[in-house]
Amino acid sequence: MSRHLLRPQGDFPIAGLGRRLAAMFYDALLCTALLIVTTFIYKLVQMAIIGEARLRVLSEAGALDGDPLLSTILLLVIFAFFAKFWTHSGQTLGMQVWGIRVQNADGTGISLWQALLRFVVSIGSWLCVGLGFLWTLFDKQKRSWQDIYSESQLVRIPKQK
To answer: Which residues neighbour 76 within 8 Å (Cβ) at sequence distance 6 or greater?
Structure first.
């Protein structure tokens, strides 16, 4: 798959931790809404298949708690959200607001494989109490764990006119 150049082009500074966290907070709000809508659709489909009365009985008995199919679907939906934005324009909606972009060192968009690596390592970073993100404070190149493992960078881009 050929790499596509992202616009604008240039030698941009690496994004700092504050902007990264602000964009993550913004995207977390969007992802929460996306998860709510996805769960609603899942429950509607489930109700259509097994019926409202049976669904209510299972729900009250706690049989639907920790539904592995729903959990898998939600994880895939969140990955699809990030992968689409990261591989297409290099920016999620939160990243657009805060003026940051994920890209390769040569200014091209990242691949789906790199997006998967970023996503998985980001989850690991949060599971380590955010240590992977705080790593930017100690790394000489201001890279987080997901930057290092996906061989990509998060840069601060100028505002579009």
So the answer is: none
